[in-house]
Each structure stands twice: as C-alpha cells, then as structure tokens.
Amino acid sequence: MQEHLKTNILNFKWPNSAPTIYLTSEDIEGSHPIHKSKFSRQIKEVFPDADLSNKDQIFTTFTTEIPDAPSIKLNLVDGRELRIYKQFLKHQLRNYFKSKDYIVVKNFVGDVQVWMPSKKGNTADYNLYYKFSFKIQFAKLTDLPELIVSYDGTSKVLTTSVKDIEDSELIKRCVYGQKTFNYQMDLDTEEKQEFHNAIQFDQAFPIFNLPLARALNIPIEEPVRPINKYQKYVALINNFATNYLFTEDFKAIFPFKTYAFIDVPLNRINHIDPQVGLLEFGKDQYGNKKTHLVPKLAMNNLNPYKRPNNQNIKFFFVYHTSHKEAIKTFYNNLKTGVTADKKYFKGIEAYVNIKASTSKEHFIEFTNESDPIPEIVEKLESLTFDHDNVRYAAFYLSPFDKFTPNPEDRDIYIQIKELFLNEGIVTQVVDYEKMVVNIENQYNFQFTLQNMALAIHAKLGGAPWKLAVTDKKELVIGVGAFTNQGENRRYIASAFSFQNNGLFRKFEYFDQSETDLLAGSICKAIRDFTSVAEADKVVIHFYKEMSYEELKPIIRGMHTLGLKIPLYILNINKTEAEDIIAYDLNWGKKLMPVSGTYIRISENQFLLFNNARYPNSQRYADTDGYPFPIKIKVSSPDEDAFEDADVVLELLTQVYQFSRLYWKSLRQQNVPITIKYPEMVAQIAPRFNNGVPDDAKDALWFL
C-alpha cells in the first residue's frame, strides 16, 4: 500500500511587505531584547555613534513606534534579520493568546506554549489543561514559512491556592494569572526578588505533583495511556487548529496557504530495508543458522544466540516473611510455564535454553519490610557461594512498586542490587503486588515471565540474539544520561562500546561535569578496539548535541593514537520527538508510518521511525506499541566526512539496527541500546554507595 505521510506543520505566506521595527539602545517599557548574534549590518548602520561591539543586546518595541528612534525594515533574506522576524512572530503569538485570556508560557526549549482549559476531566481538586506548543521555522521542509503545532500533554492546576497550603516545601511550579513560576526559585536577582515580593498567594495555584497531592489527600489516579498515541495526538492538533488557528483573527498574523497540515514532500522520504534489522538466533541441531525479524515471534520457536558461559545456574529468593507462600506459585510458573497450553511460555529453561535449579540453602527471609538491609547483610555474610562452578541469580520480591511515595522505600532495591553485585550475583526484582495480580491473570502473566527470562538470560552473560547483517568494521559508542530530579543533578554513562554485530563490550559512568573523564573513557574504547581490529569509522551516539568542549579531547585523543579514520557524532533524542511528527493516512486509523521510514527535516537532521510495523504485514498487534519517531542529527569534525552520499543512510541504518537489540523486553524499542543502556546505568549506578565493581562493568546487571 502506498503511504500518505502528513506532518504537524502549517504553511503560511511570506509577508507582502516586511515589517518595520523600532530600535533603542536602552531597555524601555514595552521593549524586547535583541541579542548581539542578531546584529546585522543594517542595525549597525542605524547606530553610527554607538559601539555595538561592547553590547550584548539592544532593544526593540517591534512595530510600536518610538519617537525619534531609529527603525529598520527587516530584510528577510538576511539570516540575522530573519531571526528577528521569527522573534517578532513569537511576540505576536504570545500577545494573541494572552488577549484571549489563556495561560501562555515557554516550553523547555523556549517555544511558545498555550494552555487550553479542558471542558471535561476537571475535579473539585484541580482543573485540567491541554498544552500546545508552536515552533516557527523558515523553508525547512517547503519553500514557505512553517508553523509546527505540537501537543505537549496535560497539566493539572490545583484549585487550592498557595495561601491555603501548609507544607510550602512541597509546592513546585504554580500558575499565576496567565503565566507560571517556580515557587522554589532561587532569589538570586533583583528581578526575581521583586516578582517574589509581589506574588498574591491567594491568586497563585500549584501545578499537580505527587508529593503535594498526597499531602492534600487528592485522589491519585493511575494515568490511562492511550493504546495508540498517534490517534490522540493527531485528533487533538486537528481539533485545536480547526477551532483556534483557522480563524480570521489568527490569519492576520499567520496567513496560512491552506487550512490543513501539509503532506511530507516525497523527496524528503526514504526507507531503510527492514532486512538490515534481521536478527540471528541460535543454530538448530543440524548447525543451520536461524534468523528472524521479530524477537517476540522468534523466541517461541528458536533458541537464543548464545547461552551464558556457566553451565550451572542457580536461583534463590530474597523475600519478606509474609510472601513466603507466594514464592512457590511464582517459581512453579517460572519453571514450568503458565496457562494450560503453555503456548507462549513453557518455562524459563525451555524459553531461553538453559539449565537452572533453585539453591534453597541461599534463600533469605527478612521481617522488617521498611528496613530489610541489616537482616539481609547479616544472613548474606553467613552464606557461602560456589562461584567457581555456579552462576547465581537472586529474585527479590519487593513489597514496594516504583510508584511508592517514600523514596527510601524505592531505594531498597538499589541497595539490594549493589549488595549482591558486590558478591558477584545478579538480581531480578519482582513487584509482589503486581505478581499477585498477574498470577490471577495467567494469560498476561506469561508475557511478564517471557521478559523476565530474557533479562535474566542476558544478566547471566547470555546473548538472546545479535545482528545478522555485520559487514562493517565499526566501533559504536553510546553516551546516555539520567537526571535525578531530587538532586537536580545529571549523571552520564558512556563507553558502551559495541561491535558492529551489536554485542556489548564495557561501560563507565560519570557526573555531568566530568567531561575529560568521559572523553578519556571514549578514547580508551577506541584504543582497545583498534588494537585488535581496523575500524572503518568511529561512531558516537550522544544523548544531546555534543559541544565543542566535549568533542575537543576526543579529537585530540584520536590524533594522539594516530588514527585517521572518520569520526561521526549522532545526536539522538532519547525522548520521543513530539515537536515534529509524521503520520500515515493510508494505514486505516492506526496512522503510524512503516518501520525504517526516515524523513529529512533539515540539513543532516532526520526523523526515524523505529517500530514493529513492516511492509506488507497483514496484522499488527496493539501490544507491539505505537512509538513516535526519534530525532537524529548527524555531524562530524572531519571536513570530508559526508563526501560519500551513502554515509548518512549507513549511520541511520546503524541506529535502526541497534534499536533491535534491547534485551529487557520483547517489545520493539524506538531508541537504540547505545542510548538506552547508558541511561539505565546512569539512573542506578550513582545511587550505589561504593560504585560499580570493576568486574561488573562488562555485564548487563542493570537490565
């Protein structure tokens, strides 16, 4: 079936006459700053007596006339003045929606975001708002200006004001009039102090957050996630555009070419051959190589590519006294399978092709639910393990789930993971409450056990599958990050170096500020790889746009090693790209484009769709998910890096392949493991008391 891809972009016309704006060197009432990066030749000419080289900014009232002040008619061919025109349009956007009494803020990348009150979903405790953002760009996909309209989710604004809340430390962001502010902001400038002093607390309303909601006894509903995000997203932006943008008032600011979101230009669309994502599993009894595209289907019939190296595997349990009886049922399901027909899970031994038994002498029972560590340590010290001959895995039955309000309860699993990792033992958490519910629903439980068996197999050193297509000698290094919101601190993990077949090598992790250590670990990975094999290229998958300061020591290190192989940097947005998307109108109402579709959205920047929808597939299960595309920017410090026209396709193909190597779940991921795995390490490892043991830095214990 021929695809029909639309995107969330509206074309509007260039103005018949460019606007004239008024300038001043002083910050006057109603003025807006123009940063020095936008100082064009025309701006410098209208300030002949001023030395603008010493100024970081000048000011403009845009089209509001200033008596005796210089003015310029914007030249929309000049790149700097085009950026001022964009600033002017954003100013008009803000004013337009403010005049309609809507909340108008900046989103996390500085674009205009409008909060539309919901007509339903409100309660006595809060009012619900739908959030839409606007991004303005010029001739990126078309030859016209473009307005990207995106849906940013919802926010709940409490009906209780700041004045009536006792525990003020639980208050985070608030709505105040038509804007929002951070109640806990640092009062480090005179402007912030003035604003803080002027707040009327009975007119400031906190935005919902879990700790505050619990303190106020607001019922907390588990979020209902749509089965297909595309359907909700597309319906909302179409409804928003129809009701609020396709109007005569709005057309005065943005004269749309048509009242419809544009089709993706055909010359911007391409596809990665799904066969490059072919995966290799274990050989059959006759030595024949077995391959498949979809792990979920393959694992029912094929063996994993590689077993753990140790033939003797033993499981034991760490559990609260009250959960003792539940272990028997759980282990029986894990060992022998669930449901009468054993259709999807025949037991862990059959599913991941290993031999395993329980080590009952190592079971650890504790009585203190909220502080089990002292008991576990005491019992662990009395046990002996045969590490020379046996590989152990501990199943921890957690009384707490990941949504438990007390962070100390959530961190117990981290402490247990570190405790056993120091003993050379991998762990698998089992959420007790979820397990009980699943045991009652046998059909769903078998899929939970599939994922658990898969992760245990990988943690023990096995490789469930690998890439089948491995014709390149490339070193791939992933750098991911996790921000600890409680500490407001970012941690990064790196040097997940992979061979071109996707098999993992080793990792390190750092604080965000440790740029040189990060570069050093990357250079070491390059040196280790090139000492045993000649690489065609070195590719770094980075969780954000790599700065020159981060890149400089890596280039220096490669020069020191005498390496003249090309270096490529791929900035991969680990969160789904929701500011710009595309959707397929020719796939019924499901809308998600075929896996491997990629769209060039600007110079060396792409949307890549990673999912389990393959061409000519007859059926698609909702359980396979509907992930949004990821956004990828490709760059290189080497001048001739992109002389080969095929290199970009090769790099995007590599991302596509590495998204198929996730061993924690059978569900297809949209983000490659080069970003996903480091993020998982950065989330856990910094919370260890003594860091990750060196002998665990080449293992997947964090799955």
UniProtKB/TrEMBL annotation:
Q: Which InterPro entries match?
A: Piwi, RNaseH-like_sf, RNaseH_sf
Domain called Piwi: residue spans: 637-690
Q: Name one GO molecular function term.
A: nucleic acid binding
One Pfam family in the UniProt entry:
Piwi
Q: Which domain of life is it from?
A: Bacteria
The entry's family comment says: Belongs to the argonaute family. Long pAgo subfamily.
Q: What protein name is recorded for this chain?
A: Protein argonaute
Name the species this protein comes from: Seonamhaeicola sediminis
